[in-house]
Amino acid sequence: MILKAINVPLNILKKVYFLRDFKVKISTELLQKVKEEELKILVEFDKVCKQLGVKYSLSSGTLIGAVRHKGFIPWDDDIDVAMLREDYNKFISKAQQLMPKHLFIQTYETDKEYPFNFAKIVNISAVLIQRCTKALQIKKGVVIDVFPIDRVPSNRIVRLMDNYALALILAIKNSYTFERAKISSSLFVRIIRIMLWPLARLISTQKLNKLETSIRVKNNIGKNKFTYADRFSLSRHRFNDKMLMPVNIFNDYENIMFENWEFQTIKNWHTYLTIMYGNYMELPPIDKRIFPHDIIDLKFD
After folding, report:
1. Full domain range(s) for residue 200
2. Could you give the number of structural domains in the chain?
3. Model's pTM, two decimal places?
4. Of the candidates 149, 153, 125, which has an alpha carbon nearest to the alpha carbon of residue 232?
5. Burial of 186 (0-12, 13-18, 19+ CB in 10 A)
6. N or C: which end of the chain has fewer CB within 10 A?
7. In this predicted model, what pLDDT tens digit does every residue of 118-164 receive, in sequence order?
8. Distance between CA 40 and CA 283 in Å, rounded?
């Protein structure tokens, strides 16, 4: 009865519900190798930012790691940086020619099926495949994430309208492949994503990302004083404004130690981390100290 009501073929539902990719059991030594390669990318990124005269900040878990551990959070396996949109645009347009040949700046404009609205710097001499991007015809390797920071509307109603529009775009992008659609733990969400699949294939992730960018950048005018920083996921916090922070905290920078290297961070990192995470110095419970990404293949030349 339910299947007839939503008109989802049984064979598709089985594919959505039952088929799963399992994480490859990665050794501690291999994960350490991933972190070492990510750190090398970050060093090159820092060099190029200095050459271009653009500012950036370690962000998210990477910034917590720098503050709390002086390096990687032991159970984290990625590096995140963020920069104001004007610096981000300058970096995206000019940095590739300054990068070593094995590093590729990946955006939806440089890699056609790339689904995200932020950049990655990819070490294309290594292969690292995650479950969420397995089926996409994009470059896959060890990466660091580079997030643009945009202002959000001062008017709460307009802000909510933007958030709902971004949530819809994200839902359609998440429906672009069966593999990505079935990642959710909710059967209902997986069914909805499959129903959106024809629309996602018709529009393409590239067009969806162009629309998403236009929604994000239209607010980068002086009267808008707040931002969600690099929080790109649309959790409930985006709808109750818990993640709002003053955009001016991204005006002043200092250096911070990370794995025995100095990198840039915003001076007011305490405000940023408190808004993002609350008591960021408190360690999570042991059962929450897990690697966050679904790695299903990992090879180094």
Report:
1. 2-300
2. 1
3. 0.86
4. 149
5. exposed
6. N
7. 999 999 988 777 776 777 888 988 999 999 999 999 999 999 999 99
8. 27
